[in-house]
């Protein structure tokens, strides 16, 4: 009888977007409870994962996801108000009205193939490169992180996933990094469960990594959606939702770097 070939277990931890702008009390796109999960994440960062990656949303000011970058069409051909100076009326300038975050959307088209497109929600300005809001929160155990991986750097496309945008215009090369390190299993935590965590996990699974979302280590923008639909969507794709006290996390301690 042929000897059973051992299966390598080499896990990575992806800490998604634990940045100031996604955390209360001052984040421009703060997720309720976002700061409260850091203790559980720091516990995981002390475990012997083969690779520990923190991702950062890293947008330019003209990023397509910012509602302020989408002016509404002009509706008036004459000024709506005037300023008086020494008895002479002159047009009073007003800032252009723009689409609104959270409620409005935009259509994003592939730069090289406009027939490919998708609709996405618009957001407040957040995580602008080198701004205070783009920094990882100080409570996070920075010293235990092996590398920081930036995403959302291409202003033309939205990029929730740490791997690539929906149209594959931009590839962050994260899958290549994981493969070069021999990673087999990916554990995803951070913010937000229903956006960047969800799409990072889906792409990780699609790239062939056994992928987990650790339930206690993430929070959602829309908790009702996440509980009633989002979890089912990722599970249908093969992603497993696990507990920080479950056997999958215990295995990182017991079997990391070993074969089963």
UniProtKB/TrEMBL annotation:
Pfam families: Isochorismatase. Pathway: Cofactor biosynthesis; nicotinate biosynthesis; nicotinate from nicotinamide: step 1/1. One of its GO terms (molecular function) is metal ion binding. Residues 69-99 are annotated as: Disordered. The keyword Protein biosynthesis does not apply. It is an enzyme of class 3 (hydrolase). InterPro entries: Isochorismatase-like_dom, Isochorismatase-like_sf, Isochorismatase_Nicotinamidase. Its EC number is 3.5.1.19. GO terms for biological process: pyridine nucleotide biosynthetic process. Keywords: Hydrolase, Metal-binding, Pyridine nucleotide biosynthesis. It comes from the Eukaryota. Residues 12-244 form the Isochorismatase-like domain. Residues 74-99 have a biased composition (Polar residues). PANTHER family: LD05707P, PYRAZINAMIDASE/NICOTINAMIDASE. Belongs to the isochorismatase family. This is nicotinamidase. It comes from Diplogelasinospora grovesii. The lineage of its organism: Eukaryota, Fungi, Dikarya, Ascomycota, Pezizomycotina.
């Amino acid at each position: 009888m042929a000897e059973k070939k051992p299966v390598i277990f080499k896990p990575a931890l992806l800490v998604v977007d634990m940045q100031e702008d996604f955390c209360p009390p001052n984040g421009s796109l703060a997720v309720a409870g976002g700061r409260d999960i850091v203790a559980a994440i720091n516990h995981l960062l002390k475990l012997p994962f083969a690779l520990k990656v923190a991702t950062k949303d890293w947008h330019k000011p003209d990023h397509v996801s910012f509602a302020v970058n989408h002016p509404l069409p002009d509706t008036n051909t004459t000024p709506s108000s005037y300023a008086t100076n020494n008895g002479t009326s002159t047009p009073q300038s007003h800032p252009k009205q723009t689409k609104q975050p959270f409620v409005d959307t935009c259509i994003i088209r592939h730069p090289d193939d406009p027939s490919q497109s998708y609709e996405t929600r618009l957001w407040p300005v957040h995580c602008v490169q080198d701004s205070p809001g783009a920094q990882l929160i100080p409570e996070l155990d920075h010293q235990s992180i092996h590398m920081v991986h930036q995403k959302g750097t291409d202003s033309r496309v939205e990029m929730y996933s740490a791997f690539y945008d929906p149209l594959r215009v931009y590839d962050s090369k994260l899958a290549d990094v994981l493969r070069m390190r021999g990673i087999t299993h990916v554990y995803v935590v951070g913010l937000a469960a229903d956006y960047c965590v969800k799409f990072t996990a889906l792409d990780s699974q699609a790239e062939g990594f056994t992928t987990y979302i650790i339930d206690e280590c993430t929070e959602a923008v829309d908790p009702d959606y996440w509980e009633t639909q989002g979890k089912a969507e990722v599970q249908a794709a093969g992603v497993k939702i696990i507990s920080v006290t479950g056997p999958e996390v215990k295995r990182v301690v017991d079997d990391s770097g070993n074969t089963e």
